[in-house]
Prior knowledge:
By secondary structure, the protein is an alpha+beta fold. The chain is built from four helices and twelve strands, in the order H-E-E-E-E-H-E-E-H-E-E-H-E-E-E-E.
Amino acid sequence: MNIEKIIVSLFAVAGLFSAACGKSVDATTKATGMKDETYPGEIMVYEGVNLSSITGFRENSIKGTQKVDTSDYRLEITGLVDTALSYTYGEVLGNFTSCEKVIRMKCVEGWALKLLWEGVKVTDLLASAGVSESAKTVIFHSTDGYTTSLPLSYVKEKDLLLAFKINGIVLPPRQGFPFMLAAEGKWGYKWARWVERIELSADTTYKGFWETRGYSNDASEDKPFFDRP
């Protein structure tokens, strides 16, 4: 049986099983676009590059849109670090240098968006806590219980951003306010939204929410997103 047939069969058997860039496993949540919403001031061209609109996003998370109150929100840096840290939303924005980058987000559902992402480097956040030599994997934890991971070497190589703006607009709740991982070069289920904790681990085989359900742990967007059995 080829991979396409495997995927079709699994989707037919489990209507809730869907991509995390993704689709929802909450039966009350539908994967829909945001054509009914507008974002005045949204940047649509950046340095000569035409951008997609924020309205092209789909709501397809595992438990629906998370509403995060920044007054009690904390971003934690834990695991194999010298000192576990906890930052307020304001501290992340105020204490770390922000960067901008145009990145395409590609979903396993077949849609893709080219957007201007603004955020802080994940490596800067990790460095502030001190990275242990035994750390190999970065695990991202979201407020809805979602998790995913990437090799520390990849996070460094790509200078991945923990984004707080897209197209010049503060992340809307559907897009992961206060922070969304811009996992450049990876399928959308690696782009964790509503990130509340970043954990360093020595476990190179760690699998997150969708990866434990058969999705590729590598998730390179130029490769199949579903692991063969």
